[in-house]
Design brief:
single chain, alpha+beta, Arc Repressor Mutant, subunit A, 3 domains, two-stranded antiparallel ribbon, 21 helices, extended
């Protein structure tokens, strides 16, 4: 074996902690970023919130996407000048730009973040949120506690409630409930009696053992004088399978109901809740705050950052000045380190905002037909298209469009919504898959309910519009819209 020394010259990309922070901030949602900033404010005395009102960073699509907004430029320059007065405290200069755009996958794997007009007033800014309530079991237990049960019946009630799934159905038999009580003197009739009382709890129909029982319990709450009540009970109790198969002719033949009567019966059944447990919202509140605000100003679409979504930060000059006067080396190091971290955080936030605004401009410029006319006019767009326009890597575009939301007159959309694959047209052009889904939805909405359009027919109709798609592709689009197949859409006319 021969031993030797070799010299090798190579270049490697080093990921600094500051750059890791900048990339991580880029992929955070607005709510997560607010939490991150709050933690920084609490832990770093050199940081403070700038409560001075600033005009939102904005521009319109008449500007080229690569031109930074003048408001952004002014803010950045002023802050850099302010920082320069404190340069004596720093060990090294901070670069003007953060090189966020590069291919980081080989050296850094970021975890997926955990996870809504201007002349926009506070009342117009939408918030999507659900109602946070107790679980279904907690809600039913609360009602059971208010019900005058004996101790034995209350124990039975708790056993029944514990066996109810999230949709509201009982997942065990009454025999199982009886066996689980461990009381030899307890009769099955008593378990059934307690079950019937729980089935009258809110939401009514809960603790049913099957769909038929669930619907009949709900009907039992109707007034006996309700029109078509008896006919509806008949259909549910004896002919529910025929109704599920939408075999209306056979249903009318066996029930001897006329078509108009059957239509009224079906309307009453459709007013019932087949999964009553889901009416109790047990999810936590989910908030969506738009990062980008888009509105039309004259003939142009104006794009701006939601200035209220992220607090503005600045350096606390009082604490920073102490770094020059303190004689204690440890205190001076503490101030210098926190000052550096504060400046990097502010610079990272500026880079995040500039990148987000630049990408939003490109999206709005490309999809102007959508903002004007709706999703049927959405254009095909992939990450590579935007990456080429803004001269960034696709991974950067992916990060900046994930969990970032845009508010426009048509609603609130995640930025990723505006990206879709393309389908070739007869004219040699391309159609967006989002636009095709919108066309499928429109065609189905206009169909004859008595003769719903099959997937093959929908494919033929799209072909007449110059869009060639296979039947299975139409089926995929229809399923993504949660639209049932034609045999399940058939209705009585």
């Amino acid at each position: 074996m021969k031993q030797s020394l070799q010299l090798r010259l190579s270049q490697q990309l080093a990921m600094t902690p500051q750059l890791q922070q900048a990339i991580r901030l880029l992929q955070l949602s607005t709510l997560e970023l607010q939490q991150e900033i709050q933690q920084a404010l609490e832990s770093n005395p050199l940081l403070e919130q700038d409560d001075d009102q600033q005009d939102p960073v904005s521009d319109d699509t008449s500007h080229t996407e690569n031109q930074p907004d003048s408001t952004t430029e002014t803010t950045t320059e002023n802050e850099v000048e302010e920082f320069d007065t404190l340069d004596a405290l720093e060990q090294k200069e901070m670069p003007d730009d953060l090189p966020l755009d590069t291919q980081w996958e080989e050296i850094y794997t970021a975890g997926t973040p955990s996870g809504t007009s201007n002349d926009y007033t506070d009342d117009e800014l939408p918030l999507y949120q659900g109602e946070t309530t107790a679980s279904l079991q907690d809600y039913l237990t609360w009602q059971a506690e208010l019900t005058p049960f004996s101790e034995t019946d209350r124990a039975i009630a708790i056993s029944i409630i514990d066996a109810i799934d999230e949709t509201g159905y009982l997942t065990v038999t009454t025999d199982d409930i009886l066996a689980g009580m461990g009381d030899d003197e307890l009769e099955l009739d008593e378990v059934e009696a307690v079950l019937k009382r729980i089935q009258r709890f809110d939401p009514i129909g809960v603790a049913a053992r099957d769909l038929k029982e669930c619907l009949l319990i709900q009907l039992s709450a109707f007034s006996t004088e309700t029109p078509y009540l008896k006919e509806t009970q008949l259909v549910i109790s004896q002919y529910l399978e025929l109704l599920g198969n939408r075999d209306f002719r056979q249903l009318m033949r066996q029930t001897k109901l006329r078509e108009e009567t059957l239509k009224s019966v079906i309307e009453m059944i459709q007013s019932l809740d087949p999964k009553p447990g889901l009416s109790i919202d047990t999810g936590e509140s989910e908030y969506v705050i738009p990062d980008i605000l888009v509105k039309k100003s004259g003939e142009r679409w104006q794009v701006e950052l939601n200035a209220d979504s992220i607090p503005r930060l600045r350096i606390n000059e009082t604490y920073a000045a102490l770094g020059q006067s303190t004689q204690n080396e440890s205190d001076g190091k503490f101030i210098r380190d926190n000052l550096q971290e504060a400046k990097w955080l502010i610079k990272s936030l500026e880079s995040r905002n500039e990148t987000l605004l630049k990408v939003a401009h490109c999206i709005v410029d490309t999809q102007q037909a959508f903002f004007e006319l709706g999703e049927e006019h959405m254009k095909p767009l992939v990450l590579a298209d935007i990456a080429e326009q803004v001269e960034m890597h696709e991974s950067t575009i992916s990060r900046v469009t994930t969990q970032k939301f845009l508010h426009c007159p048509r609603g609130i959309f995640e930025l990723k919504y505006f990206f879709s694959s393309h389908v070739n047209t007869d004219s040699g052009g391309e159609a967006s898959s989002t636009a095709i889904r919108a066309l499928v939805k429109k065609l189905i909405a206009a169909e004859n309910p008595a003769k719903p359009l099959s997937d093959s027919k929908l494919a033929d109709m799209l072909g007449e519009l110059g869009i060639q798609v296979a039947r299975r592709t139409v089926a995929k689009y229809r399923e993504s819209l949660s639209i049932p197949p034609s045999n399940q859409r058939k209705e009585l006319v």
